[in-house]
């Protein structure tokens, strides 16, 4: 299989505008993410897909690959445009605001498709266990619930599942926004109309569920910092 990684990058993020151009250590957030993905050595090609000339120039001047796209509501739609004419089988979507992603979780996502003999999985992604009440209740943390085989049942910014039976312990999982797509499923996704649940939650992978596609979740112990707010940026600076 030919496997590529694409980093969708939007300059005007709604919660934290220009976050990808903030300095993290000695480099911008987007350059840090790009170089970390490239250094895994897992991919036939790595590039940034953006509608921002500022981000495009930032990547190119640092020796990276970038492509310009039109404006899109979701990162997956942006990637679909970017890869439409690229010969590949699997597309890994690494969020531009996840600069500390490591090699092992990416390898786990790729393995999903080597083990998918019936080719029934459209998308694979990551989840990590949440234990702190504040983190579980934080709407910036997208929670996910899965069936016994690890297939997603639903994603939400609300607390899911609701812990009504307090005598029974329940696990909570945060969805980490790293996706691995079959290319044809990604192209199909971009042509599908947004449905009410996706619009309400503003979680793009809900679109797959609303149209009956299968999403496989892999549990990881990787703890990174997704940069959604200025406070997250400060956490990332301390980590680096």
UniProtKB/TrEMBL annotation:
<dbReference type="GO" id="GO:0008690">
    <property type="term" value="F:3-deoxy-manno-octulosonate cytidylyltransferase activity"/>
</dbReference>
<dbReference type="Pfam" id="PF02348">
    <property type="entry name" value="CTP_transf_3"/>
</dbReference>
<dbReference type="GO" id="GO:0009103">
    <property type="term" value="P:lipopolysaccharide biosynthetic process"/>
</dbReference>
<dbReference type="GO" id="GO:0005829">
    <property type="term" value="C:cytosol"/>
</dbReference>
<dbReference type="InterPro" id="IPR003329">
    <property type="entry name" value="Cytidylyl_trans"/>
</dbReference>
<keyword id="KW-0808">Transferase</keyword>
<keyword id="KW-0448">Lipopolysaccharide biosynthesis</keyword>
<keyword id="KW-0548">Nucleotidyltransferase</keyword>
<dbReference type="InterPro" id="IPR029044">
    <property type="entry name" value="Nucleotide-diphossugar_trans"/>
</dbReference>
<dbReference type="InterPro" id="IPR004528">
    <property type="entry name" value="KdsB"/>
</dbReference>
<protein>
    <submittedName>
        <fullName>3-deoxy-manno-octulosonate cytidylyltransferase (CMP-KDO synthetase)</fullName>
    </submittedName>
</protein>
């Amino acid at each position: 299989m030919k496997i590529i990684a694409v980093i969708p990058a939007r300059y005007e993020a709604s919660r934290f505008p220009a976050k990808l151009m903030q300095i993290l250590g000695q480099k911008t957030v987007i350059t840090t993410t790009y170089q970390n993905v490239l250094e895994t050595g897992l991919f036939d090609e790595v590039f940034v897909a953006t509608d921002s000339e500022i981000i495009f120039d930032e990547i190119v001047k640092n020796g990276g690959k970038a492509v310009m796209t039109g404006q899109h509501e979701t990162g997956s739609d942006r990637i679909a445009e970017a890869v439409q004419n690229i010969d590949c089988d699997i597309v890994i979507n690494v969020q531009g605001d996840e600069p500390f992603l490591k090699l092992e979780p990416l390898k786990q996502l790729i393995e999903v498709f080597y083990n998918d003999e019936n080719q029934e999985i459209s998308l694979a992604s990551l989840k990590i266990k949440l234990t702190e009440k504040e983190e579980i209740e934080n709407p910036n943390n997208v929670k996910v619930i899965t069936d016994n085989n690890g297939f997603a049942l639903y994603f939400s910014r609300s607390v899911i599942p609701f812990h009504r039976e307090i005598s029974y312990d329940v696990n909570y999982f945060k969805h980490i926004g790293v996706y691995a797509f079959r290319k044809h499923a990604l192209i199909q996704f971009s042509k599908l109309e947004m449905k009410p649940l996706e619009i309400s939650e503003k979680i793009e992978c809900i679109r797959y569920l609303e149209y009956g596609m299968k999403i496989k979740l892999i549990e990881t112990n990787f703890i990174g910092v997704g940069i959604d707010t200025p406070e997250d940026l400060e956490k990332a600076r301390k980590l680096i």
